[in-house]
Design brief:
Organism: Tetracentron sinense
Strand content: 5-15%
GO molecular function: glycosyltransferase activity
Distance between the termini: 93 Å
Number of domains: 1
Order of helices and strands: HEHEHEEHEEEEHHHEEHEEEEEH
Shape: elongated
Strand order of the largest sheet: 2-1-3-8
Bound molecules: 2-acetamido-2-deoxy-beta-D-glucopyranose
Subcellular location: Membrane
Structural class: alpha/beta
InterPro entries: BC10-like, Glyco_trans_14
Keywords: Glycoprotein, Glycosyltransferase, Membrane, Transferase, Transmembrane, Transmembrane helix
Largest sheet: 4 strands, mixed
Radius of gyration: 31 Å
């Protein structure tokens, strides 16, 4: 290589190097500009979001159907439970006719105006209770996104956070209906007061219901059921079983014949009558404790569910309810192990009956801290 050649090469190299620097700076510049552009579009997209909110999110919902006398004393507990789940539930309250849920009657905005405008006067023990259930279902069925229908009392609390309860209920295509056959029952108390209750030997089946409701279709079980949309429609459309209950179940008036406690038989018996028992999980998701010794009157003994007060509301009590994973139905010698998504699971998602102070005390403990928070008193 001569000097000339070397010189030329060194010049070429210099030019090459200069180009490299230029291209590099150009790349750097365009990168910077690109990021700026990107930021700008993101920003305008955020602006667009504010101007045009995204379409309303639609997803399968759980309809919470409250049966109350007047107001809902545990509204604050439900409020904490429902925070942030706006698209996954709807609320309907059957309270006495004319009772309005507004700022004056509830502390939770979720309940504003959620009362039904066609509610009826409920006589406890009469067929009006099951009519209230049917009115709730009729109203909740109007929204096609309601896929499960949960009956709740005004003294009922949720035991888990919303997502757990939603998944548990939605993960199966069945209803949850506590149901047992009365024939052959031996009239002892249910061993595990979890869901069942005692049935008295004489039973509440009224032979006059035959032949519309044959005795082999007569069922009993907890009123606190969870229904699929299909089963909710069956209940609302029913025009044969309900009239029979209406005719033969009158509020307790001392006459045994009339004391058939319709709300603890109606849905169960109707589903049996319609041949739909293959589509139910045979247990309730709502825990109730029955006090055997509370009444001295033999006839009425055991009919009263325990109400937990502030002093009873310990984390241990709640944990013991949450720990139940099987229920023994003594009248059928049947032990029901509770499962969800194929795994052994807690039996109960809800529990009753709790006073307001008791429920508020729970909210402050770690066993019932929805959304990880303590609540303001
Ligand atoms: C009751 O509410 C329904 C819809 O929620 C409405 O269509 C109906 O007109 C209302 N009835 C009365 C009497 O206000
Ligand atoms: C909800 O509860 C379940 C069961 O207790 C728990 O595993 C899960 O982490 C909770 N989820 C939230 C979002 O808190
Ligand atoms: C009912 O059945 C249980 C379970 O076997 C039995 O222990 C009990 O003695 C029976 N009660 C009556 C009154 O027959
Ligand atoms: C819950 O705990 C907080 C903080 O300790 C307390 O201020 C509040 O009064 C408690 N609420 C209830 C209902 O116990």
């Amino acid at each position: 290589m001569n000097r000339d050649q070397m010189k030329r090469r060194s010049i070429q190299q210099k030019i090459y190097c200069r180009w490299k620097t230029k291209i590099f700076s150009l790349l750097l510049l365009s990168f910077g500009f690109g990021s700026l552009l990107l930021m700008h579009t993101q920003y305008s997209r955020i602006n667009m979001f504010m101007l045009f909110p995204p379409p309303f999110v639609q997803m399968p919902k759980i309809a919470l159907l409250f049966i109350a006398r007047n107001r809902l004393p545990l509204d604050i507990v439900w409020d904490a439970f429902l925070q942030g789940q706006e698209y996954k539930f709807s609320i309907f309250v059957h309270s006495r006719p004319g009772f309005l849920f507004n700022k004056a009657t509830t502390k939770s905005a979720y309940f504003y105006d959620r009362q039904l405008n066609d509610s009826i006067q409920v006589d406890w023990g009469g067929a009006s209770m099951i009519q209230a259930e049917r009115i709730l279902l009729k109203n909740a069925l109007i929204d096609p996104w309601n896929e499960r229908f949960v009956f709740l009392s005004d003294s009922c609390i949720p035991l888990y956070n919303f997502s757990y309860i939603y998944d548990y209920i939605m993960s199966t295509s069945t209803s949850f209906v506590d149901r047992s056959e009365t024939s052959g029952s031996n009239s002892t108390w249910s061993y595990n007061a979890g869901s069942s209750f005692a049935d008295t030997k004489e039973g509440r089946y009224n032979p006059k219901m035959d032949p519309v409701i044959p005795v082999h279709n007569w069922r009993k079980g907890s009123q606190w059921a969870v229904l699929t949309r299909k089963h909710a429609e069956v209940v609302v459309k029913d025009d044969t079983i309900y009239p029979v209950f209406q005719q033969h179940c009158k509020p307790a008036d001392g006459s045994k014949e009339h004391n058939c406690i319709p709300d603890e038989h109606y849905v169960q018996t109707l589903l049996a009558q319609e041949g739909l028992e293959g589509e139910i999980t045979r247990r309730t998701l709502t825990h109730t404790s029955w006090d055997i010794s509370s009444s001295k009157d033999r006839e009425r003994r055991g009919w009263h569910p325990v109400t937990y007060k502030f002093s009873d509301a310990t984390p241990m009590l709640l944990q013991s309810i949450k720990d139940i994973d099987n229920v023994y139905y003594e009248t059928e010698y049947r032990r029901e192990w509770c499962s969800s998504k194929g795994k052994l699971s807690p039996c109960f998602l809800f529990a009753r009956k709790f006073t307001r102070p008791a429920a508020l005390r729970f909210l402050n403990t770690s066993v019932l801290a929805f959304n990880g928070g303590l609540i303001k008193a």
